[in-house]
Amino acid sequence: MRPEEGGAPRHWFREKLSLVLQPTGETSPPFFSATRPEKRRRNHPYLLRRFMVDLSFSEIQRLDLSEYQNIKKMVKICCIGAGYVGGPTMAVIALKCPSIEVAVVDISVPRINAWNSDQLPIYEPGLDDVVKQCRGKNLFFSTDVEKHVSEADIVFVSVNTPTKTRGLGAGKAADLTYWESAARMIADVSKSDKIVVEKSTVPVKTAEAIEKILTHNSKGINFQILSNPEFLAEGTAIQDLFKPDRVLIGGRETPEGLKAVKALKDVYAHWVPDERILTTNLWSAELSKLAANAFLAQRISSVNAMSALCEATGADVTQVSFAVGTDSRIGPKFLNTSVGFGGSCFQKDILNLVYICECNGLPEVAEYWKQVIKINDYQKTRFVNRVVASMFNTVANKKVAILGFAFKKDTGDTRETPAIDVCKGLLGDKARLSIYDPQVTEDQIQRDLTMNKFDWDHPLHLQPMSPTTVKQVSVVWDAYEATKDAHAVCVLTEWDEFKTLDFQKIYDNMQKPAFVFDGRNIINADKLREIGFIVYSIGKPLDAWLKDMPAVA
């Protein structure tokens, strides 16, 4: 029973309030839990209001709430851009921070409809489960961009930053059209102070430009710009988000900037250990992303360059890379040779880095990084030339089976996949292609083979809507159908299912001599040779047949 009005001691109210407001120990202050003998549950400040209904007005007047003044309204996050970065990142934030409301917005109606359906617009292992756990609770996908941006406390911007195709810096510089448009929209619709977070990969000093746009259109509203680059690897993105090597947050080194950095750090601190959340200034964070991708791409080009030398000398690149990787100073990662690197970041970020170096009067540094891309292009050209030269120096009207089109396994992403250049090279010699990839649609493959360079990085609604069908290309949904009556098989993606195919069955249904060109070194070449195949594995000792028909890149 409640003590008589006017007779309750101050500590009685404090004890009663503690049932509602005891902190959970989480790093983000708005979230509390109620502690009772029979149960413990998550809570938030709304329960304070529900509790106070039970108190008389005079009791409320006497309450000392000073020790609870850190209670704040529920944090709202909005992410502009529902693509490969925005969608998975926000889904994991929603899962790990159930008391934060997360909205992912995009102007593409089909894409948002897909995020709200059972068939998500991107394939990523584990993503379905994360989205289904949170969608409709504290994770929302919407086309009402302005509403959610206006209501948000933190706005992530994850929009396209394609390479410019015309004008100043064409072929190298990043096109910030979509970023600038997003910044102007944020300034226009905002009615409260906001933290704006760069999630897209952008050139150094982009934050400064965006800051100027927001400041000159602020109408008295304060904006803080942070750089929070993503370091996700497609195919393992969800695990990368669950257990990141590091979370990098860059901000202004001012009181306001440091406060904004802490606010974003508090979000990640729900599940990321403090020692893995790194804070820097804005420019260091922006450059760190470009540098990380450049270093990774450099390792791939280094081992691919060695693969060409291995073929020429009879060495085995697998043995060489293993020996090199056992050196603790180097390590084994990113030392697998292949037909070339792909994905949305490596080439684009290196070109961007080259342009920044040139603009800052560093031509020697720019030339150094150009070589990483030149070796990657050389590797793809070398592969095509090996295929053509091995097959009597022509593939005209010959069926070539392409196994794998995505740039790596466990993703449906085809951006900058080496398969595009390999296929175009074979088509240029009049080959007929039969393509199978377990996650890439026929429409996407036809689109990739007909689009101009760099067009892929623009929003879908600005890409060609009805791509011209390449008549020499057929897309099938079965590896055995793709290889039936083929003269050759090219393995261009390291899907696990390709390792367990019945190659005796494939051989029996192919034209003879039957060739396998393994662009990922995932198939047992010795077993295939026993069956009767002529096999080319990148960086491995050549068959006698291949030695007699040298390929010049």
UniProtKB/TrEMBL annotation:
Q: Which InterPro entries match?
A: 6-PGluconate_DH-like_C_sf (IPR008927), NAD(P)-bd_dom_sf (IPR036291), UDP-Glc/GDP-Man (IPR017476), UDP-Glc/GDP-Man_DH_C (IPR014027), UDP-Glc/GDP-Man_DH_C_sf (IPR036220), UDP-Glc/GDP-Man_DH_dimer (IPR014026), UDP-Glc/GDP-Man_DH_N (IPR001732), UDPglc_DH_euk (IPR028356)
* Entry annotated with the keyword Calcium: no
**Keywords, A to Z?**
NAD, Oxidoreductase
* Pathway info: Nucleotide-sugar biosynthesis; UDP-alpha-D-glucuronate biosynthesis; UDP-alpha-D-glucuronate from UDP-alpha-D-glucose: step 1/1
| Residues in UDP-glucose/GDP-mannose dehydrogenase C-terminal domain copies | 401-525
> Which molecular-function annotation in GO is an example for this chain?
UDP-glucose 6-dehydrogenase activity
SMART domains given in the database record = UDPG_MGDP_dh_C
Q: Which residues form the active site?
A: C345
E.C. number = 1.1.1.22
Query: Which positions bind NAD(+)?
Result: 81-86, 106, 111, 159-163, 200-201, 234, 345-348, 415
| One GO BP | UDP-glucuronate biosynthetic process
Question: Organism's domain of life?
Answer: Eukaryota
- Does this UniProt record's set of keywords contain RNA-binding? no
Q: Which SUPFAM superfamilies match?
A: 6-phosphogluconate dehydrogenase C-terminal domain-like, NAD(P)-binding Rossmann-fold domains, UDP-glucose/GDP-mannose dehydrogenase C-terminal domain
**Family, per entry:** Belongs to the UDP-glucose/GDP-mannose dehydrogenase family.
Identify this protein by name: UDP-glucose 6-dehydrogenase
Taxonomic lineage per UniProt? Eukaryota, Viridiplantae, Streptophyta, Embryophyta, Tracheophyta
